[in-house]
Amino acid sequence: MKLMQTPRSMDLSITGRCNLRCAYCSHFSSAGDVADDLPTSEWLTFFEELNRCSVIDVCLQGGEPFVRSDFFELVDGIVKNRMRYSILSNGTLITDEIASFLKASRRCNSVQVSIDGSIPTTHDAFRGEGNFVRALRGLQFLLKHGIQAVVRVTIHRQNVHELERIAEFLLEELGLPEFSTNSASYFGLCRKNSEQVQLSAAERSIAMIKLMELSRKYDGRISAQAGPLAEARLWRGMEQAAAGNAGNIHGGGFLTGCGGTESKLAVRADGVIVPCPQLPDIELGRINEDDLKEIWQTHPELRRFRKRQEISLGDFEFCYGCEYVNFCTGNCPAAAHAILGDAWHPSPDACYREFKKAGGKLPEDAI
């Protein structure tokens, strides 16, 4: 596939600050790992370069984007430069004024809000007392003004047995059209607190069974790009392909699990350009100092990432003898980098064979 001349979209960490310190946050390696925000002018100048590069949309994240006092000015700069935007938020700082402003901008694609329980006790266990109520209030303001609100549920050891009640709360009581799920990862504070938050193989199995059941019950209104539900669907496809009951999996047998660097890049809160928010230590350049188009087209690290899909899983000792090797795509390079220090290796966390070795089982109707 021919490479685009410039990235289509950008993930922008407009701040390293956050009003919360969630135990499974993927953006902090320690509670004090924050830096001063870039001046407003630096972001506004960079937005002009994004416009010249024909970037279509940006995702504002952090930290917590709404901690910036100049947030409205930054959004105005995005709109002025003919881009659309989405926001990743914990929801607690969203006010009626903010939601009204987002609606009036006419360029907001969506706002993701994190809701991790059906009751305060569950949500607040790792996010802090009072934040369930605050997040719901922010969510209600978004809904009031017709902003597309995307609720994300992070599944961890404290809420894995509450999934049915969470689905009822979000889809029936709040009347949301859908919600998405993932699970506590291997990044940032989550890695530091892994024993408290990361699912065991048995807990992953419980989550898979329940989420598959709920997905059927609610006619597919539960989505996932990562975590137990996504893994159940992916591994079901691998089982079927291995048994000859399905066609080949696209990219199977090679490290094709992520194609992010074919269409987007990210910027850290300090202005350093990186391949992905989850690969913050692979530095490509700096905004307003290095030419974005040149980085995109010529940087050796990006060229290496784009060659990743040519690496056969059969070349890795880790994959020797695996019956699924020709149907696997190696999953997330950032997870492999976090666990092994090597983004050009299959991720052990998303290995179906390792999951089965640890006693994990797919739902029977997923096979």
Automatic annotation (TrEMBL):
PANTHER family: PQQA PEPTIDE CYCLASE (PTHR11228:SF7), RADICAL SAM DOMAIN PROTEIN (PTHR11228). CDD domains: Radical_SAM. NCBIfam families: rSAM_more_4Fe4S, SCM_rSAM_ScmE. One of its GO terms (molecular function) is metal ion binding. This is Radical SAM additional 4Fe4S-binding domain protein. The keyword Repressor does not apply. The keyword Metal-binding applies. It comes from Desulfomonile tiedjei (strain ATCC 49306 / DSM 6799 / DCB-1).
